[in-house]
Amino acid sequence: MSDVLQRLVEELSTGSVRVVDLTIPLGPDTVVIDLPSIFSPSKGVTIERISCYDDAGPAWYWNNISLGEHTGTHFDAPIHWITGKDLPNGTTDTIPASQFVGPACVFNVEEEVAQDPDYLFTPQHLEQWETQYGRVPSGAWALLRTGWSRRDGKESFINEEEDGPHSPGFHQDTSLILAMERDVLGVGVETVGTDAGQAGGFDPPFPNHSIMHGAGKLGLASLCNLDQLPPTGAVLIAAPLKIVDGSGSPLRVIALSPT
User: Fold this and answer.
1) β-strand 101-108 against 234-238: which pairing, if any?
2) 91, 84 Cβ separation under 8 angstroms
3) What is the pLDDT of residue 36?
4) How many CB atoms lie within 10 A of CB 171?
5) 122-156 pLDDT, tens per residue?
């Protein structure tokens, strides 16, 4: 075992490095993104018991599950968006596993979002963060900490009004910088999708999806516990199911964080 890995094992065993779960529970009550009625919706989670120590299976318990790829805490592959549809290695079964692991850069904008649910993380705010914590490194996960995951229930989480949902996200210029100039692995958010709630009306629509996936980058949605991570210093592991030709996948996102 290398010295680095040996030290990691030791620091995990002593608690010097914590494992932080960034994943919401996945079940029938998990909130799924709403689309306009003209589009086909993604189904929620259905769990069907096969057997539970009974006549159908006397010594074992297991279930059938049915759900959309982009349900709960989930992974967006490049092929998920039209801009990434022709990229090589853009599906959940072809993306190199090395792209699932990287340092975490956490942008804390909870105060701004508390004042404005439509808050967008601008290049100016990114510059302020980098002045304090250093340049976002290549191969990092860019995580937007908004406190949104603490909202209880679908109505509050989607936060829909007559003009559509209202939730925070990345300004399109920031997405461009992160994808093209910082070369991040991808972005992660606490909201139901990686674009702001009003992004369908932006020009172009859904710019974070378009920019990130067009550049071969990844997305993580419905994260939680980002307040347990430091601005820098943690390592994020986000490995989707290896679905053949998959556009995304529910996943268990964990971070290794210093105490």
Assistant:
1) antiparallel
2) no
3) 82
4) 20
5) 999 999 999 999 999 999 999 999 999 999 999 99
Query: pLDDT tens digits, residue range 3-40?
Result: 999 999 999 999 999 999 999 999 999 999 988 888 99
Q: Which residues are catalytic?
A: 80
Cα separation of the two ends of the chain: 24
Token pair belonging to 82: 């039209």
Residue count of the chain: 259
